[in-house]
Amino acid sequence: MKIPALFALLALSSAVFAAKPNVMVIIADDLGYHDVGFQGSQEIPTPHLDKLAAQGLRCTNGYVSHSFCSPTRAGILTGRYQHRFGHENNPAWLPESTTAGLSMNETTFPTLMKQAGYTTGAVGKWHLGAHPQFHPNKRGFDEYFGALGGGHQYFPGDKGGAEYTIPLNRNGTDEAQTKYLTEQFGDEAAAFVGRHASDGKPWMLYLAFNAPHTPLQAPKEWLEKMAHLQPEQRRTYAAMVAAMDAAIGGVMSKLDETKQTENTLIFFVSDNGGPNLSKKTGVNFTDNSPLRGAKGDLHEGGMRVPFLVSWPAKIKPGTYDQPVIALDFLPTSLAAADSTAPANLDGVNLLPYLTDEKTTAPHDLLFWRTGGPGGLNAVRRGSMKLVRAGKAAPELYDLATDIGETQNIAAEKPQIVAELVTAIAEWEKGTIAPTFQSPKGGAPKKKKAK
User: Does any domain span residue 148?
Assistant: First the structure.
């Protein structure tokens, strides 16, 4: 190769790796901790997520900031504990309510990425408010396609609660569902990736599946592949996870096809742990092992989740064992975009830690709460985890030796208990009571718009 050509190639290579990365946040809904291959599942094939894990970092102590749906999403989209602005419950489907949704006082992830020069898009489940003021296009996303409520039927024409059968929405306009919803969301995300491949500017995509959240509905071809699994609910759930993996595979293929994989920063989590029992059947169809608890709990099964970070251009594959939380996605993305994060974020920039520039823990303390002040609290410092339900005696676990939280060592370590109880009290000074309540029973209700 001639010298000028070599210099040109080196210059092009430097430009590519110096460019701001694309950013993609992928969220599963109610995924069990042990229900993907990279977490050890032998029952549910997830080859595309396993490939993503192999090319990136699997965070073995990865958390979300809440043990159920909408609050976790509020935390991801603000980089702040949602308790600071009262988003501690799931908003009911109330198109007339200007309260039940992501606070209009909060600056969002896509807004900050737009300021950093990014095109922003969202595909999938929203669940952050039904009033028009909460619409994704009003909260920083240039493009949106998905279901605005907290869940949706998976097949076109299926009946259910009003929230679960509303039309899909594209940039504020109703649009019909055309196929199995998980597949349709995957197609839309892949189209976004392809559409913006040659824009000359980076993009940020928030891809929020409603799978494998109930209702348990799966395509026939995936059900047939899972025919060996029992009971029926487990089989259907497994088919839904596999279908979601295939949809993610389509998005990853589009990244490869458009040569964007190397410089795309990808995060993957579930919004909480898998639910424990079906209220209708009593069947436990998810697998959170080896964790204790499930969705809604503040033991590990509620908010410790499958957690991946991939950026082939910058992050070497492997595992990362220090505690991290999905609140970190926003400041990490801003740092990757060479943009300054707001001072009020609770998340931290993980890049120095994931690239071994820093060997200390990213967080001294991590907090969780449900039920408002005086409700159920949890805090983790190092390997020590304290769980406290109201005025009940605190429980203390050493997660380094007891990931299943089976041995309460509070009586043996009263000093640590006292310190962590004090830490919770100090943290709660920066929080407020919930500004809206979850729907009673969690069921979608039909409301007439005023």
Answer: yes
Catalytic residue among 34, 48, 66, 127: 127
pLDDT value of position 138: 98
Reply yes or no on whether 59 is catalytic: no
Q: Residues of the chain whose pLDDT is less than 70?
A: 1-18, 278-282, 441-450
> Is residue 5, in this structure, part of any structural domain at all?
no
For residues 252 and 309, membership in a common domain is answered with yes
For 149-296, list the strands marked E by DSSP: 168-170, 173-175, 203-208, 264-270
Calpha distance 149→364 (Å, rounded):
35
Instruction: Judge if 307 and 374 occupy the same domain.
Output: no
Task: Pick the closest to residue 310 from 334, 333, 338 (CA basis).
Answer: 333
- Domain total for the chain? 2
Decide if 63 contacts 366 (C-beta within 8 A): yes
**Inside any domain, residue 444:** no
| 20-68 pLDDT per residue, tens | 999 999 999 999 999 999 999 999 999 999 999 999 999 999 999 999 9
Same domain, 261 and 228: yes
Q: Give residue 420's domain range.
A: 366-428
Catalytic residue among 69, 87, 152, 299: 69
Instruction: Go through 150-177 and write b for each residue having 16 or more CB atoms within 10 A of its CB, e for each that does not.
Output: bbbbbeeeeeebebbbbebbeeeeeeeb
